[in-house]
Specification:
The chain has 378 residues and is an alpha+beta fold. The chain contains 14 helices and 14 strands. It is globular.
């Protein structure tokens, strides 16, 4: 016998945030979320995404009062306005291996969607494209990382048994760092630099990055606009993302490309893997967990590619190759063995073609599932 309850108190939100750590405590591939970020994710006072969104969260309890599942619903008015759709997103779905728990949780999301006049459930998705998204459907025996989600195989089985169908897939690649820059990559990069009069900015301090942040995210908004699930980032969101990520940046892994007038036309970001530090700290940075994370930032064995964004008019010019060359130079210098991409839409051939110069392994796949609200509720 299970009971569903909406999350309405700080104590309940604490349970909501901590549940995955309990569920995956014996899973060697799971990487905890950063607790401090997660506890503010559904706080309208802390998350600027609430300027255009609504959300509810629920917990599922067993007869002993133990949490056995969680889920959130996100209504993005901005995305529905952009697409003309009536979508309700579901997010943060985690549960024990019991189909009834999954059904009860998703029933709450569907009822909320119906109440709001929405006709389709889609997810797992966050408020923005910068949030973690997609259900893991391949790569269960691969280490996760702090920018993506890990799920047990039964999540997929549950959703499909409940009638959910594939909406979109992302693929992820592990890229072996070569011993030297591939000849073709070198030649293309040199040609792009001279033909378009471009240069890569070199920053000596994080303070120098500040003046370029807004321009960089203008490029991100323009580059990502056509992609599935995206909405433009607002100034508040840009400020919040910058505050979260700039302190973690190693400036050798920041690639800002500018034209002859010092206008940003592309940006690429990498970060040393935080996997070991977050596992040791169980996702808590304070009071002492940040020491484990700082150690990871100084020990570069695996690099996580956060994203590459290129202004649309430059997307077929080879500018991405220019940033990739710089990234490989730094990876070799630091002795990194591998780089891992973030999720890339399987239909985004432009992005995947960037890895043709390297030895790669497509090692994870994640998926969004959708279902019509009325179909699920019947």
């Amino acid at each position: 016998m299970y009971m569903i309850k909406e999350v309405t108190t700080k104590k309940e939100m604490k349970k909501f945030v901590k549940f995955p750590n309990k569920l995956y405590k014996d899973c060697q591939y799971f990487i905890p979320d950063i607790y401090e970020s997660e506890k503010d994710f559904f706080n309208p006072k802390k998350n600027p995404s609430y300027d255009y969104s609504e959300s509810k969260q629920w917990l599922c309890y067993d007869e002993k009062g133990e949490v056995v599942g969680r889920v959130a619903a996100i209504l993005s008015h901005a995305y529905n306005k952009k697409t003309g759709g009536k979508f309700m997103r579901y997010s943060h779905i985690d549960m024990i291996d019991d189909l009834e728990v999954t059904r009860l949780l998703m029933m709450e999301v569907a009822k909320y969607a119906k109440e709001k006049g929405m006709d389709t459930l889609m997810g797992p998705l966050g408020f923005t494209d910068m949030d973690k998204q997609g259900l893991l459907v391949e790569g269960y025996n691969e280490m996760s990382n702090f920018i993506t989600l890990y799920h047990y195989p039964y999540y997929k089985e549950h959703l499909e048994k409940l009638g959910f169908v594939k909406d979109q897939d992302w693929v992820e690649y592990q890229i072996k760092v070569p011993d030297e820059i591939p000849h073709l990559l070198n030649r293309m990069s040199d040609r792009v630099l001279s033909r378009y009069h471009l240069k890569i900015k070199k920053f000596k301090s994080k303070k120098e990055v500040g003046p370029y942040i807004n321009e960089a995210f203008r490029v991100v908004n323009e580059a990502f606009a056509p992609l599935y699930g995206t909405v433009p980032l607002s100034q508040k969101q840009i400020d919040e993302i910058a505050a979260s990520y700039v302190p973690l940046l190693n400036l050798d892994f920041v690639y800002v490309v500018v034209d002859g007038e010092d206008k940003v036309i592309a940006i690429g970001l990498m970060i040393p893997s935080l996997n070991k530090g977050l596992r040791r700290s169980k996702g808590k940075l304070f009071p002492f967990g940040f020491m484990h994370v700082l150690r990871d930032l100084k020990t570069v064995e695996v690099l996580d590619l956060l994203f590459i964004a290129v202004e649309p008019k430059y997307q077929s010019t080879g500018v991405a190759a220019l940033m990739i060359r710089e990234a490989i130079v730094e990876a070799i210098k630091y002795g990194a063995k591998y780089a891992e991409t973030g999720p890339e839409l399987e239909t985004n051939i432009k992005v995947q073609s960037q890895w043709k110069y390297f030895e790669t392994r497509q090692h994870r796949r994640r998926r969004t599932y959708k279902i019509k609200v009325d179909e699920f509720l019947k």
